[in-house]
Structure formats: C-alpha cells, structure tokens
Amino acid sequence: MSSLPARTPFIVRLGQSFDARSWLLIGLFAAFALIAVPIMHLVLPADHPLHLSTWFITLVGKILCYAIVAVAMDLIWGYGGILSLGHGLFFALGGYGFGMYLMRQIGRDGSYQSDLPDFMVFLDWKELPWFWIGSDSFLWAVLLVLVVPALIAFVFGYFAFRSRIKGVYFSIITQALTYAAMLLFFRNETGFGGNNGFTDFKRILGYSITAPETRVVLFALSALALIGTLLLARYLVGSKFGRVLTAIRDSESRVMFIGYNPLWYKLFVWTLSAMLCAVAGALYVPQVGIINPSEMSVGNSIEIAIWVAVGGRGTLIGPVIGAFLVNLAKSWFTVSFPEYWLFFLGTLFIVATLYLPQGVVGLWARLRAGRRRGEGAAAGTTTAAAAKGAGA
Amino acid sequence: MHKLRLLLGICLLGISCAQAAIDPGLLRPLAADDSDTRIAAILALVEAAPEEAQPVLQAMAGDSLAVAGERVVVLGAGGRVFDAASNRELTPPPAGIETIGINNRVRRELASALAALRLFSAEREVRWQAAQEVNQNVDAKMLPLLDRALAAEKDPKIRARLQLAHAQASLGSTDAAVRLAAVKTLGESSDPRVRQLLLPLTEKQGDTWVEADSAVRAAAGTSIRSIEQRLAWADNLGRAFTGLSLGSILLLAALGLAITYGVMGVINMAHGELLMVGAYSAWAMQSVFRAHLPGALDWYLLAAIPVGFLSAALVGVLMERIVIRHLYGRPLETLLATWGISLFLMQVARTLFGAQNVEVANPSWMAGGIELLPNLMLPWNRIIIVAFSIAVLVAMWAILNLSRLGMFVRAVTQNRPMAGCVGVPTGRVDTLAFGLGAGIAGLGGVALSQIANVGPDMGQGYIVDSFMVVVLGGVGQLAGAVWAALGLGVFTKFLEGWTGAVVAKIVVLVLIIVFIQKRPQGLFALKGRFVES
After folding, report:
1. What is d(CA B94, CA B104) in angstroms, rounded to the nearest whole number?
2. In this predicted structure, what is the pLDDT of residue B279?
3. Which of A259, B237, B345, B404 could form an S-S bond across to B273 if both were Cys, CB 3.0 to 4.6 Å?
4. Can you tell me the distance from the alpha carbon of A244 to that of A231, in angstroms, rounded to the nearest whole number?
5. Is A163 touching B (CB cutoff 8 A)?
6. Which residues from B are below 8 Å from A157, CB to CB?
7. By CB neighbour count within 10 A (0-12 exposed, 13-18 middle, 19+ buried), where does B122 fall?
C-alpha cells in the first residue's frame, strides 16, 4: 500500500473531506465558541443585552458534550448499523474517571476536613481503595478517562462481535451490561460514592470550578472536542474504512464473502465510539458539577439514540442538531411543563421512527428536493436507501 | 346454705361456676417480699389446685392481685374487691389494700405457669398453643406438671411438643441419666432454639466443662449435628422455594414477551408498562369493590384477572395498530418507538393515578402460610403466584398449540408470505397475537400487584429481567423461557445466600452476557438452517 505513489498526505485528505461551505460553518462555530462567548460572558456587563448568563454557558456546554456523544452514537449506529444501548455507561465511566480527580482536588475543604473524599469518611474508610491510587494527578485522570472505557468496550465488543451478536440482541446485552454497572455503582462498597456519586467539586487544576473563567474554558474545550470529533468522524466515514463499515451495515454476509473480516471494523468503531463518549463525560462532569449512577440508567442510553434519530442518522451534522433540539426542548419543558415532558419525548420517539427515517436533516433535504422537482417526484431516494440499511 | 350462696355469688360475678376454695395458706406467699418465695408459691399453687389457680394467676399477671392484711384479694372492675381464696365479694372492701407488684422475672414465671395450666384445657387448639408457649420458656421446676400433662395428652402432635419441652426441662436435672435421655430426645428437634440450648453443653467455661458427664457431652454433640443437618436442609428447601417463586414472577413477566418478541420478533420495550396496566387494573378493581361491594372485597382479585387481561390486551392492540405494524422488519426502530410508547404510558399513569405508588392489599385468603418446619414457612401469596403462573403457562400453551389462532400465529411466524397465500389473514393475526402477548403481561401485572409496589415506574424494573429471560431461553418458543425463568430464579436466590441481593443480580447479569457470547441462540434454539435471521 505504501508503495502507491499518489497517496495524498493526511492533512490534505482531511481538508478535502469537507467542502468550502462546511469549513466556513466550522470556522464560524469555532470563532463563536472560542472568541465571542468568552467576550459576551466575561467582558460584557451583566445588564448588556448581548451578555450570556452562567445558565446559558452551562446549558450549552452540557449540550455540546451531549452532541459529542450523539456523533459517537451515529458512528456506530448510523454508519455501523449497531444500536448500542450502552453508551450511557461509557459516558458515565468517563465522568467517574474524571470525577475521581475532581474529588481529590477538594482536598481538605470537604465537610469532614479529611484527605479522603467525604463519602469515604462517612463510610468510615481509613485509606483510599487501590483503584483511587494516582487519582490526584490530572494526567492520570485523563489516562483513566481514555483507557478504562476503551478497554471495557474492546473486551466486551471483541467477544460480542466474534460471536456475531448483532441487531436487537446486541442492543439488549449492552443494555444489560449498563444496567449491571448501574447496580454496581449504586452500592456504597464499590467505592464511587453510591447513590450520591460525586459532587461538591471545588477546583480543577487549582482553579475554582465555579469561576466564570473556568466555565468559559470548559465551554471552549467542549466546543473544540466537538469540532475534533466531527473532523475525525468525517475523515473516517470518507475513508476506505468508512466504506467497508457502511457495507457491513448494509449486508454483513456479503462483505464477509468478499473476504473482509467485519470483526475488526466493528470493534474499532465501537471502541472509538466508547472513547468519544468517555471524553464527553469527562467534560460534562466539571460543568454540571455532579456524576451519579443514574447516568447509567436504561432510559438515558436510549435517549442518546433519539437525539441521533431526530437529527438524522447516517449524516454527521444531524446528531449535533438532534442533540441540541431535544435537549433544548427538554430544558424548556422541564421548567415550564414538567408533566408534559415525557409525553413529548414519547411522541418524539414514535414520530421520529415512523415519519422521520432520516431525521430533520432528511426532512430538510426532502423538502428542498420536493421544491426543486415539484410535488410527486420520488424525493430523497438516496438518503432513504441509507436509512433502510441502518435499520436492518 | 353457705355453699349455695357462694355458688350463686360466683355465678352472678360471671367468673366461673366450678370455682372451689383454695387454701389461703397457699396464697399468702404470693405477696412475699422476695421473688424466689413468690415463684415457689406460684408453682406450688399450680401443683395443688391447677383448676382454681388460673383466675388468681391471671389477676396477678394483670396487676390486680392485692393484699389486705393477711388476706389476698382480687381487685375487680368498679372498685369491687373479691377474696382470692373463696372468690367471694368482700363488702365493704377491707381497708389497707396493697397491690402486689411483680418484676419481670416473676412475670415470666407467671406466663409459663399460665401456659402450663392451659395444657389441661379441654380444647385441642388451646392445648396446642400452650404446648408451643411452654416450649419457649421451660425449666426443671415444671417437670412434675409436664409429666401430668403428658400422661393426660392423647394428641400425637401436642405430645411431641410436650416431650420436647420435657426434655428441655430435664436438662437442668441433677441426674446424669435423665440429662442423657433428654439430650437424645432433643436431637430429634428441628428448632434453632434447641440448638442454642444444647450448644453450651459442649463448651468449656474456664477449665471445667459446663456439662460434667462426658457421655452427655458426646450425645449433645451428636444431637447438635443432627439438628444442624435438619436446619440446613430446611434452609435450602426455603431457598429453593423462594427461588421458585422468584422464577414464577420472572416467568409471568416474561411470558408475554415470549410471544411478542420470542414468537413474533417484535421487540417491545413497553412490555413493563403493560405489566403496569395489569397491576393498576388490580388496584382499580379493589377500589370498585371497596366502593360498591364491600362484602366481597376479598374476591376483587378474581375480578381483576379478566379486567387486567382485557385492558392490557386493548392497550397492546392499539399499540400494534397505530405504531408497531408500520415497523415490522425494522427491529431497531421498533425498539425506539416502543420505548417512546413506554414513556408515554408511564406519564399517562402518573397523570391519572398520581406519581406515588398506590396501595394494593392482599385479600385475606392470601395471608399467612404453611409452616412446614419451625424455620420454614411458605407464604400463601407466593404459593398462589406459583400456581397462577403455571395456570397461565398452560393456558398459553393451549392457545398456541390447540387453537386456530395459535396455528395461524405459528404459521405466520414460520413463513409469512406462504401463510398469506393460503388465506391466513396475516395482518389480523399479528394484531391478535400482539394483543394476546400484551394481555398475558397484564395477567403478570395483576400477580405482581400482590407482591410488589404498584406505581408508574414499576414496569421499568422488569424490562431488563424479562428480556434476559427470553434471550437466555432462546427466541421462538415457550419451553426455553420457562426453564430460563425458573433457573434464573433459583440460581439468583441461592447466590443471594452468600453474596447479598445486589451483587447476586450483577453476577447473574454478567453471567448471562458471558453465556450469550458462547451460545447466541440461547439455551434452546429452534432447529433450522439459515445464515441470518
């Protein structure tokens, strides 16, 4: 392969993977997140009409993390045809990995003024359990976030894909795995704070976690992580790897007959997807200020799928749009009409699966195609074919 | 004349017509200052006059025995005073009445003396109760009484109890031969308390043995071992039963899924909410009966069975008609859409019935249980649920294998286009089969309402378990689901014995995940040759 003369450098191929308009959009988004938001939050006075409140920064920062998860989910579901109901687990594991570091950063400022995290004092533990060793180091925490969920995903995925477990079966056992993990983390003896999880964080790398500057930096990091995820996903999807992955989604047997082993393709994208989730979880925890086992509940993982379905799976911008739409609706509903939120979410699940096979992105494309060709033309056939494959 | 007046007086007082006088000399020590004398007096009284002693001792236990000078009196209602020896009312009441206060030690002795007295009652039930009470608290001083009771007792069950009590009492004897015989008799018990009683006999206190005689010690060791064996046996039996009961609950929760997912291949995440519909139907029937048929409240559950089935089936049919039929052949979308339905139904329950759990009471005929062994009790509600799940299973098997609908369902599952070609209305069969699965989930919900909390979130707790049962058993048939449910139930309960409930659950889930890797088709797979389903 390396002997092929016309191999374009990576950076050029990455550059070619988006058209000019997409690059412009990405650039605009980066400028907004990295320049405009800090100015609007930190520099502008609180009564200025363009001032962004802490509430806004936290909410959007949170949704940016969700959007990363949605893109990760889209890689495995939209392009790999594998619906995981276990992404909440990887998200939470990333959060817990980083949360351990945040707990150690509290130092002696907890309610018990002890070197140990408060919940350990409460359980009358005398020293840190072995898996907390090194948790006071930021680099170790980053390593934990990247390695632990990836390792779990790799081992689980290896056995599952080797046994050729797929479709609904795979969804159900990922769900069981997440459920088992949730039960495990609910126990106090597991050493992760039981029901309450980790909270009351004070600082990160020595900076106060509630300071506006810290918030803005975390927000910018989330935005950068999302952009990075999108670039990576775009590159993967456009590469030969992505083609094979899509082919496996559409007909695994045929790909095998041609001579590919689907195991490694699925395993790679599955592990990558878990790592992206973990990074999102690690960015999420300091912004929200809490991580507890309910993040691993069955419902949370399924909700991730609906962000992707609403936005449009098999596209990359779709999941980001879906994550924003659903979560903005959620924060609006839970404040204004808390009792109607589940009605809305339930209906969304049904409508999205019945009438929006390609999500809002597909709807947009269909509307535009319909306008161009006039009513009655076979609209959106190219995207509909992809949707059919993704559901199989 | 004197006697007649006495009898008349007693009858008027309504205490007991057969009352004869007690020797006042026996009564006086009851009021003694130290407890030992009092206890001796209680026993002497029971020995001398078992029939007449009861009201006096009852009064003493109720703190209404008093002394007035040398005379022991019973304080009656409305400030009246009776002579304890003759049970005659004293008018005017004597001066200087002092209640006999009793401490806990005396109170204990009184209770066992009263129980011992009831051993001579004419009613079998009273004697049985008394024999059980005597077993709880017995000592050597009661031996003569127990001897007399044993001589009079005919009922074998009560005799066995009395013999046990007798042996317990004999342990305090000074004669080594009596103790040896007692220890051997006690070896036949299966009561954990007897083990506690025998344990000290095999232990050393400082340098000396608690039990001096080595033969008694050896016999005590043997007896303890045989009791322990029986206890362990009963423990395992109890665990097997709770496992069976958990298995039958899992089965009820999973049976409906075995049709919708196992046979039809529709993955229904709202299955837990169909259980919830059944459970709320039980609650609704309870409310209806409470309001309109309070006399027949105990039988609301029987009415809840058809109501639960029909309401869950109706919800199921609507679900199938409105949503699921558009998604056949797209299992992942079905999963998401049914999850949406489940959220919707949860919120409907919350809006209609409130977010709190509602209270569903067990009917009185489900209370209590069968006591197989002293440490093994099988509660009726569990037994009934096991029986109910068997009945549901049989009914479902019959519908699938004997009825026309069942034949259609099997035909559509095996080859949909072919079934359609020979005239099976596949669309309607789908709807009916889904309704049947949903209705069976409703039945499961009615059963669950008897042992679990009924609330809007109740279904969520069963969804993972139900799918585990179906997946473990193998898709496509009932037998797999049955074995998987029972196996999971019993295995979980035995595991819980030494790991605790939560860890047992985690271990079971992980084991299932590992098992599925080894055998993706489940325990029982349909035989066939196909590359992909």
Report:
1. 29
2. 93
3. B345
4. 19
5. yes
6. none
7. exposed
Q: Is the model more confident about A284 or about B413?
A: A284
Q: Where are the domains of chain B?
A: 2-105, 119-212, 241-456
Residues of A within 8 A of B266 (CB-CB) are: none
Q: Which structure tokens are listed for B528?
A: 């066939």
Quote the tokens at residue B401: 């294998």
By Cβ distance, the residue of B337, B351, B509 closest to A176 is B509
Q: Using CA atoms of B19, B20, B23, B24 in order, give the dihedral in degrees to the nearest 10.
A: 50
| Inter-chain CB pairs, A–B, below 8 Å | 129
What is the per-residue DSSP string for B254-313?
A: HHHHIIIIIIT----TTHHHHHHHHHHHHHHHHHHHHHH-GGGGGGHHHHHHHHHHHHHH
B332 to A309: CB separation less than 8 angstroms, yes or no: no
**A345/B467 touch (CB, cutoff 8 Å), yes or no:** no
The model's pLDDT over A72-119, given as tens digits with 9 standing for 90+, comes to 999 999 999 999 999 999 999 999 999 999 998 888 888 888 888 888
| Contact at CB, B337 and A253, closer than 8 angstroms | no
Q: Are strands B65-68 and B97-99 parallel, antiparallel or unpaired?
A: antiparallel
Q: Of how many residues is chain B composed?
A: 533
pTM: 0.76
Return d(Cα A152, Cα A267) in angstroms, integer. 12
Q: Could you identify the residue written with the tokens 């056949």?
A: B328
Q: Residue B72: what are its φ and ψ, rounded to 5°?
A: -95, 130
CA pair distance A76, A392, nearest whole angstrom: 13
The distance of B439 to chain A (nearest Cα, Å) reads 22
SS3 B208: strand
Q: Name the residue facing B340 among A83, A176, A347 (closest C-beta).
A: A347
For residue A338, whether the previous peptide bond is cis, meaning omega lies within 30 degrees of 0, is no
ipTM of the complex: 0.84
pLDDT at B295: 81
The answer for B 310-349 residues in CB contact with A (under 8 A) is 323, 326-327, 330-337, 339-347
Q: How many CB atoms lie within 10 A of CB B275?
A: 34
The span from the CA of B457 to the CA of A342, in Å, is 12
Please tell me what DSSP assigns to residue B363: P
Return the SS3 of A5. coil
Distance of alpha carbon B273 from the chain centroid: 28
Burial classification of residue B289, based on how many CB atoms lie within 10 Å of its CB (0-12 exposed, 13-18 middle, 19 or more buried): buried
C-alpha distance from residue B67 to each of A88, A92, B71 (Å) = 78, 76, 6
DSSP assignment letter at B89: B
- What does each C-alpha distance from B386 to B17, B139, B371, B390, B522 come to in angstroms? 52, 43, 17, 6, 24
Q: Give the Cα-Cα-Cα angle B16, B18, B24 (nearest 5 degrees).
A: 90
Burial class (CB within 10 angstroms; exposed 0-12, middle 13-18, buried 19+) of B506? buried
Of the listed ranges A156-165, A325-334, B375-384, B519-528, the one predicted with least confidence:
B519-528
Q: Which of B513, B518, B530 should be substituted to probe chain A, the one whose Cβ sees the most A Cβ atoms within 10 Å?
A: B513
B173, B174, B180, B181 alpha-carbon torsion, rounded to 10° = -40
B contacts of A165 (beta carbons < 8 Å): 516-517, 520
Average pLDDT, chain A: 87
**Closest among B262, B256, B259 to B274, alpha carbons compared:** B256
Mean pLDDT of successive 10-residue segments in chain B (533 residues)?
A: 48 45 76 79 76 77 78 78 77 76 80 76 79 72 76 77 78 76 77 75 73 77 84 83 85 84 80 93 92 84 93 94 87 89 92 88 81 75 89 90 88 84 90 91 90 86 83 76 86 83 87 82 62 45
Q: Taking CB atoms and an 8 Å limit, are B471 and A346 in contact across chains?
A: no
